[in-house]
Amino acid sequence: MTVRVIIEAVGRTGLSAERVREVAGAHPAVLAHLQSADAATLVVGAAAALGHDPDERAQFRANVFDPLSNRGVELRGTLDRPEEAQVLPSAYRPNPRAEELQAAAAVLRADERFPAGDDVLIYQPMPPLADLENPDGTTTRRPTLGVYSPSGEAKHRIVAVDIAAGSVDWSPAGVSVLMHPGDCESHLPAPVEQLRDRGGPDQVQLRVVDGDTELWNMIVVRPRASAPQNPGDGSGVELRNVRYRGRIVLRQAHVPILNVQYEEDGETYRDWQYEETRFSATGSDPVGWGWRICTQPPRTILERPDNDAGNFQGVAFHYADGELRIVSELAAGWYRYASEWRLTDGGTIKPRFGFAGVRNPRTCMRHRHHVYWRLDFDVEGSANDVIEQFNDTGSTVPEAVPIVQEVARKRRAPARFWQVTDKTSGRGYQIHPGEHDNTTDPYGVADLWFLRHHPAELYDGNPGTNNQAMLNRFVNGESVSATNVVVWYAGHFRHDQNEPDQHQGHVVGPDLIPVS
What we know:
By secondary structure, this protein is mainly beta. The chain folds into 3 domains: about 5-90; about 100-170; about 205-515, Copper amine oxidase, catalytic domain (Beta-galactosidase, Chain A, domain 5, Distorted Sandwich). Helices cover about 5% and strands about 40% of the residues. The chain is built from 3 helices and 33 strands. Strands 1, 13, 14, 15, 16, 17, 24, 27, 30 and 31 form a 10-stranded antiparallel β-sheet that branches. Strands 18-19-20-21-22-23-32 form a 7-stranded mixed β-sheet, with no helix packed on it. The model has no long low-confidence stretch (mean pLDDT about 90). This is Copper amine oxidase, enzyme domain.
């Protein structure tokens, strides 16, 4: 019997970006705090409904940002009465999106110090912003841009651009301006002038059907719309309401936190996961651009030896040999990430995350990537899950130890794997660490967190100056026995350009194996 992969576009519960802008523009407290008189200049995003099975009365949170005053607020309200939302000052600063980067690039090219040559390329670097603190305590928003000049004395240089003033700072404080003269990686980065979004649905309903049997049914959200955003940095390919053979197993599964830590100079970055970039995928687009059912395996930068390009941007599906792959490629500065889920006919779920980069001296430096999956288990429903840790006792049967209170754990002996099951039916999933997932260092904090579900705990808040994952703030002693359980799972990958095999271990992720 032939397995069919079926997708159809579906709407989502929440406020559109247009509605958020309308509410903000009519709210006196918003404009007063932002010191803005023009709602059209505000940076807003869609506000997804919070909680399980949200309806028209569900809560929402939305950040509204004014790039001119460099100030933001957060709206907290309900979908049925957004005009009554509470307005709170917010320290969250969104990263520049394509339109702002292209405006900054126009200012940069007009600068008299911009290098000559047709081979000069402008790309988005790290960090994404280099704001200027003014004497009066205010700050000026300044997106950063990387200048790649192959024939120049320094091939790479990072500048900061004040778009409103039309000026360029060629030596922004706190940024590695003139970088190491060498280059790593073979792929040239895509210039910011080429960044574009060709539209298409934000999410689809996915069904995997074998004859008359429905194996999988879920919502798949593309990276550009993935939660959390505003505040938050997206989460790659996001899965919602995941059902296997008609039974709910996961309410939400995604990667809200992704960090990079450099060993040599101690620099750290919080990477974003909403920016879709191009990869190779051959097939058909049954619901429009951004969603492709492939006739052959898609190839991200991990499989492509040529360049930072491709014929597709969005989410690709490919089924073969009893397994469906759901794949997208992400960009964050000079990094490229493969966001992937693998679903087997037997019910196993394999979250996967791959690491690569485009040409830049920073990737030559030894660094560590820390990726944090958030797995909202709803086995047989949302209120009766239990957690066990299986320890290696030397016997053929590992010892099951219940976890009854919120806790953070590391992957170290005697722990072998963990299990989340429904207390009544015994059905659930084991969490088996991947071969290359490694054990955390002090910066990575931990390897797993077992938490009680709270709708607003999608994002660890302002991570501070070192961008460290602040998930321990959610560990406050609550019970996780016979309740609604969320598991955060971290993978840690050390990238050393001097390793003999550059791609050894460049993909991390656990296996979620069904129980009963």
